[in-house]
């Protein structure tokens, strides 16, 4: 082989190596497995108004390319769907025992474990390397399964609606994310945190070791920027905050009245609140494209939007408007993204005003 031929082969190798590295970057992935900066999945409840009962596995999908809700051709328990495609990266890391990656999985209702009321009412997954990764915030109990079991959707999460919000971040953002999680005090049930990620991610290690916040302030707000440049604001509270995060903090901090959709099937659910300058109203009925209508009582998702179309805040998280969860850690991720706002705001079909008007 002459020098010229070797040079051509070497250049060819570098081109394809760079292509492989690009494809292999840890990122949120859409329904076709392609990288996306962020996505939202709204898993539909089994019971719907004026419609035949669904399977409890259908879902609406939203990212910057769809610009609105689209019914997925997949079911949420399929590995070909957006959630399955995204978590497949976790299973590859687990199977290869890759020491160049971190995964951090938390859920107060972890699979195969008793419900944990001591830790925060928080659910999510981190997967990252020294380049980038994703933070998937969701409302799904008993999810995901332990990595050695592969992808699956719990039967307990088929009846009610659920939300999953995935955002891709560069590595530099995960130190801030780990600080937010320290405030949320999540129940971690599976993780891999190699020494190479210390001290940047020391808060993740502290959480895993059972460390807790010991002094105020009991809440933390920070700005995050996705890998694609989308701006977010993260709100996280520790249990000692002792207030409804939606009414006492979120609405006031964002300076907007909020329409809130959270779990209302408990006796200690909080009513709509008009006692503060910015109000919070409980959503009663949701409508999604294709005449999909369901009651809030059939929905386990946690999100809120500005009532006023001029404000356009949307927040998605993992904590409810209940008295008991005033004393639990948790948080929400908020954005002014117009596609996300339009999708959720137009989904509000009916909400409850305050008793005093």
TrEMBL record:
Keywords for this protein: Hydrolase, Signal
Pfam families: DNase_II
Biological process according to GO: apoptotic DNA fragmentation
Signal peptide: 1-24
EC class of the enzyme, as a word: hydrolase
Catalysis: reaction(s): Endonucleolytic cleavage to nucleoside 3'-phosphates and 3'-phosphooligonucleotide end-products
EC number in record: 3.1.22.1
Top-level taxon: Eukaryota
GO MF annotation list: deoxyribonuclease II activity
UniProt similarity note: Belongs to the DNase II family.
Protein known as: deoxyribonuclease II
Organism from which the protein derives: Callorhinchus milii (Ghost shark)
């Amino acid at each position: 082989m002459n020098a010229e031929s070797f040079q051509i082969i070497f250049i060819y190798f570098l081109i394809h190596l760079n292509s492989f590295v690009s494809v292999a970057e840890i990122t949120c992935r859409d329904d076709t497995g392609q990288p996306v900066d962020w996505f939202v999945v709204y898993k539909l409840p089994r019971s719907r108004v004026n419609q035949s009962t669904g399977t409890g596995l259908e879902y609406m999908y939203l990212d910057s390319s769809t610009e609105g809700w689209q019914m997925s051709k997949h079911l949420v328990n399929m590995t070909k769907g957006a959630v399955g495609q995204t978590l497949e990266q976790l299973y590859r890391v687990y199977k290869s025992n890759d020491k160049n990656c971190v995964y951090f999985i938390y859920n107060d209702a972890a699979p195969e474990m008793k419900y944990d009321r001591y830790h925060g009412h928080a659910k999510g997954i981190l997967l990252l390397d020294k380049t980038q990764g994703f933070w998937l915030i969701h409302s799904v109990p008993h999810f995901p399964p332990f990595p050695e079991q592969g992808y699956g959707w719990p039967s307990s999460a088929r009846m009610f609606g659920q939300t999953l919000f995935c955002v891709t971040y560069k590595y530099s953002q995960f130190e801030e994310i780990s600080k937010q999680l320290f405030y949320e005090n999540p129940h971690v049930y599976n993780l891999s945190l190699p020494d190479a990620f210390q001290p940047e991610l020391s808060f993740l290690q502290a959480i895993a070791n059972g460390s807790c916040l010991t002094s105020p302030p009991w809440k933390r707000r920070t700005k995050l920027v996705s890998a694609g440049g989308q701006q977010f604001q993260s709100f996280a509270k520790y249990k000692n905050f002792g207030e409804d995060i939606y009414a006492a903090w979120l609405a006031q901090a964002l300076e907007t009245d909020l329409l809130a959709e959270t779990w209302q099937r408990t006796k200690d659910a909080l009513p709509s609140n008009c006692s503060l300058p910015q109000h919070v109203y409980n959503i009663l009925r949701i409508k999604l494209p294709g005449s999909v209508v369901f009651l809030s009582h059939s929905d386990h998702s946690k999100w809120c939007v500005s009532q006023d179309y001029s404000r356009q805040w949307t927040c998605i998280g993992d904590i409810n408007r209940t008295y008991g969860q005033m004393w639990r850690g948790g948080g929400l991720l908020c954005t002014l993204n117009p596609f996300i706002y339009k999708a959720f705001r137009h989904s509000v079909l009916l909400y409850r005003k305050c008793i005093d008007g």
